[in-house]
Amino acid sequence: MEQFTIEVTERVNTGKGSANRSRKQGLIPGVAYHRHDEPTPIEMPSKEFTLLARKARRSQVFTFKSSSDSLNGRAAIVKEIQQDYLRGVVTHVDFQTLKDDEQITVDVPVKIVGEAPGVKVEKGILTIVTHEVSVRCLPKNIPVVIEVDVTSLNLGESLHADQLKLGAGVVLADDAQETIVSVVIPRAVEEEVKAGAEAGAEGAAAPAAGAAPAAAGKAAAAAGKAPAAGKAPGK
């Protein structure tokens, strides 16, 4: 597995002016923090970080290489990246440092595995509702991806977060009932079924409406055979 090692240096000076000077020197200013420690202002080579970030997954663990004893060898994940979208460059990076014996909550991407019968046989459409899942675990147990097996998914069915296989030492940090993936009826088919149902309902209603005049005619005929008011039968 490729190692994501990034060289970082402690920044002596902080503030907007210092950060801009770092950027002009080809460096990205940032900060490394942990909830039990004071944040440490850092900077890193822009080119090196950009190349690694393009290959990194969302939950990627980086290892610091530094002349600072407090940073060298520390594991960290990226929590926030600020960018100048007009220039297409990274302007600031926030790292959260990790401890081997302390659990962390991270977002891990999902990967669809297999083919759903609802798609292959029943011609449904596979819809991925959620592309990542939040889990909690030790840094060493952070999954690269979470596989979502859809080989038992039929038309109209869904898989939820609590049905995922997360692996040893990994627990769900999201809503257990959150929908991950569904097999839905194609819109064209759904509209065709709906139109057919409406046409059937209209056809069933037509004879009932046409029966009314006949019923009225029978009632009139029966009325004609009845004795006239005020006359006794047979007179």
Overview of the structural elements:
It is built from four helices and 14 strands. It is an alpha+beta fold. The chain folds into two domains: 5-97, Ribosomal Protein L25, Chain P; 104-187, RNA Polymerase Alpha Subunit, Chain A, domain 2, CATH 2.170.120.20. The strands form three sheets. A seven-stranded mixed sheet has the order 1-5-6-7-3-4-2. The longest helix has 39 residues, at 187-225. The radius of gyration is 35 Å and the shape is elongated. The N and C termini lie far apart (113 Å).
Question: How would the blueprint of this fold be written?
Answer:
Elements: E1 5-7, E2 9-10, H1 16-24, E3 27-34, E4 37-45, H2 46-55, E5 61-65, E6 75-84, E7 89-97, E8 104-113, H3 117-120, E9 125-128, E10 132-137, E11 146-149, E12 158-160, E13 171-172, E14 179-184, H4 187-225
Parallel strand pairs: 1-5, 3-7, 8-11
Antiparallel strand pairs: 2-4, 3-4, 5-6, 6-7, 8-10, 9-14, 10-13, 12-14
Binned, the helix content reads 25-40%
Can you tell me the CATH superfamily of the largest domain? Ribosomal Protein L25, Chain P
Q: What is the CATH architecture assignment of the largest domain?
A: Beta Barrel
Q: What structural class do helix, strand and pairing data support?
A: alpha+beta
Element string (H = helix, E = strand): EEHEEHEEEEHEEEEEEH
Radius of gyration: 35 Å
Terminus-to-terminus distance:
113 Å
Number of strands: 14
Biggest beta sheet attributes: 7 strands, mixed
